[in-house]
Design brief:
- This protein is mainly beta and 114 residues long.
- The protein contains no helices and ten strands.
- Helices cover 0% and strands 48% of the residues.
- The strands form two sheets. The protein has a six-stranded mixed β-sheet, with no helix packed on it. Strands 1-3-8-7 form a four-stranded antiparallel β-sheet, with no helix packed on it.
């Protein structure tokens, strides 16, 4: 199983980023997938979930309509579109096969700063 995140970077407050997670080694469309994050000196925190069909999804309260999770089962790839980013969104973002991040990739750093 491989989960490889990309798309992070440095962005100003109010900016946008689109994270991707390329997967392999398992039947991607059979799995709920998750984004979790870890801010500096904090534990892992669930961000969003999506079912195998892409028809059901949910978000943590702090997202407040700013993020959109999606998936492309033909490409075995998970996405997270993040808009209206805030400094408190600064974290390493991971895609995961479980909501607590036990089975996650190496992560991609997102830094929101002016």
């Amino acid at each position: 199983v491989q989960l490889v995140e990309s798309g992070g970077g440095l962005v100003q407050p109010g900016g946008s980023l689109r994270l991707s997670c390329a997967t392999s080694g398992f039947f991607f469309s059979n799995y709920w997938m998750y984004w979790v994050r870890q801010a500096p000196e904090k534990g892992l925190e669930w961000v969003s979930s999506i079912n195998g069909y892409g028809s059901e999804y949910s978000y943590a309260n702090f997202v407040e309509g700013r993020f959109t999770i999606s998936r492309d089962n033909a490409r075995d790839t998970l996405y997270l579109q993040m808009d209206s980013l805030k400094p408190e969104d600064t974290a390493v973002y991971y895609c995961s096969r479980d909501p607590v991040g036990r089975d996650r990739g190496q992560g991609t750093q997102v830094t929101v700063s002016s």
